[in-house]
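User: Hi! I have a protein structure encoded as tokens and I'd like to know what sequence might fold into it. I'm fairly new to this, so please keep things simple.
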């Protein structure tokens, strides 16, 4: 339970820290519970979308829903995406890439990366309201499940004391991986039509390609890589869904 609470404290900005004191060591084991936090963040997106969709055009409601998640997470993953784009776009060596990613200032590649990401995300308002609500919940939980496996595929690229969050994640055990699979897949199985299951192939493909790139450039991953990987896996889920509906 402490590890679970640590995950909600780490991945959101809601005052879960008021519930109980969590030892620092628990934050090294939050990744298996990342898909579970998606039930909260994805649920907030879906609920905000449905409520505001009764008042505003869907395009406006979708932007408000995305904004709600940004507020709940404190832009944690978007910060990772910006640093990832800056590092991999501007770095020419492993050391330079890591140094750029650790710099708190955002660069050209980071700005462009976020602009392109949000421009694509806002286009998801082309889906019907109820469909987008279901997809929003599933995309959040499932993509976090995909991204969570990064810590088992690659080593951490920095020393622990060099981490921006001052924590390095421990690899998942088989039991933890199974638990994460449960939380990541249940929404997909319950909310999406059976004929849409092939859409679940898109995020793992993005995961595999980005893992290869991270291994080649860094020989491992960083916290920014985790955030960027989640958002890009999620974006691929949305884009494939939109393409499926648009055909």
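Assistant: Happy to help. Inverse folding works backwards from shape to sequence: for each of the 247 positions I chose a residue that suits the local structure. Here it is:
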């Amino acid at each position: 339970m402490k590890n679970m609470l640590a995950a909600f404290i780490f991945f959101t900005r809601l005052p879960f820290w008021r519930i109980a004191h969590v030892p620092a060591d628990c934050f090294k084991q939050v990744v298996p519970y990342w898909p579970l936090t998606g039930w909260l963040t994805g649920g907030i997106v879906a609920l905000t979308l449905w409520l505001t969709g009764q008042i505003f055009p869907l395009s406006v409601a979708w932007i408000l829903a995305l904004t709600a998640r940004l507020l709940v997470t404190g832009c944690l993953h978007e910060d990772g995406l910006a640093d990832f784009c800056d590092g991999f776009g501007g770095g020419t060596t492993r050391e330079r890439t890591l140094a750029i990613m650790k710099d708190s200032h955002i660069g050209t590649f980071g700005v462009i990366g976020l602009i392109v990401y949000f421009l694509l995300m806002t286009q998801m308002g082309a889906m019907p309201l109820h469909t987008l609500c279901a997809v929003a919940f599933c995309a959040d939980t499932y993509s976090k499940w995909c991204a969570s496996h990064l810590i088992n595929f690659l080593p951490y690229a920095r020393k622990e004391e060099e981490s921006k969050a001052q924590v390095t994640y421990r690899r998942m055990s088989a039991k933890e991986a199974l638990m994460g699979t449960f939380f990541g897949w249940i929404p997909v199985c319950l909310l999406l039509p059976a004929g849409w299951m092939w859409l679940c192939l898109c995020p793992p493909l993005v995961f595999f390609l980005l893992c290869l790139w991270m291994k080649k450039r860094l020989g491992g991953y960083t916290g920014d890589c985790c955030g960027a990987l989640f958002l890009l896996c999620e974006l691929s889920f949305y884009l494939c869904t939109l393409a499926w509906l648009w055909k």
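A useful reference point when you look it over: Residues 223-246 form the longest helix (24 residues). Feel free to ask if any position seems puzzling.
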